[in-house]
tRNA dimethylallyltransferase (Tenuifilum thalassicum), 310 residues
Amino acid sequence: MSRSQKFLIVLLGPTGVGKTELSLSIAKHFDAPIISSDSRQFFREMRIGTAYPTDEELTKGKHYLVGHKSITERYSCGMFEMEAIELLNEIYQTHNLSLLVGGSGLYIDSLLKGIDDFPTPDPELRKSLHEQLRNEGVESLRQQLKILDPEYYAKVDLKNPQRILKAVEVCLQTGKTYTSFLTRPKKPRPFTAIKVGLNRPREELYRRINERVDKMIEQGLVDEVRNLIPYRNLNALNTVGYKEIFQYLDGEISLPQAVELIKRNTRRYAKRQLTWWGRDDEITWFHPNQKDEIIQYIEKQLKEKSNGKT
């Protein structure tokens, strides 16, 4: 491998598939620092509900962008893109290779391709959309998005009102689809990417998700969410595992009902994640148990890409 050529191994896959454990083995084998692209693990107050790496796991490899923000801080996909590029430029001073791990497709894409600058928001349009959300609920915005940008509608988290509002806002303001801003030509990057996808048979994945939710409850998810009640309106907490427990704490549903909702909504989220990556033919997919095959594949890719092959 040339000293001047830098690589980014991208280890992606749906929630609960087993990325964290495998990433530690890959990081150790290649002496690669780990950068998180899990948009929920950025926040230090959300440890249990986001399956945050354990202290032991964090000590097994050099980790970046895990728990580095507070839920009270504004953090966007564009900010992540800039921060991750700066970080990689530092890492590449001493390493030829780094490892990006996570399941947030939009954040991964922003680092690999770049997100073109969105237009400066129109205050009046934004105000009217927020009023629409408040008065009519998220469903009206969903229906608008379905008409304005059916491609983005098919893969966005339909339970995330802020993301839907943003997409509708861009569509109305520019007359273009939100997707068009996400699929423009790639920006120059200081690395060559190698994408490795992890997946399991659906039943196996869903069983792991269900077991992980049960484990979160045992670890104290209810208390974690209870401590965050003063911040419940922040966007970071508008996510699976937290919304349902807030409903329980409000007395709207029982704890068993909340647990079942978390499991169901997490399974649906995993399905949406897989849909997001379904059209990306640059990803080579493996079962997480294929550690040796994955390492061999990465080594082969490094060799071929170093020699100028595709």
Notes: The chain has two domains: 7-115+184-306, 123-182. Residues 113 and 188 are 8 Å apart (CA to CA). The mean pLDDT is 91.
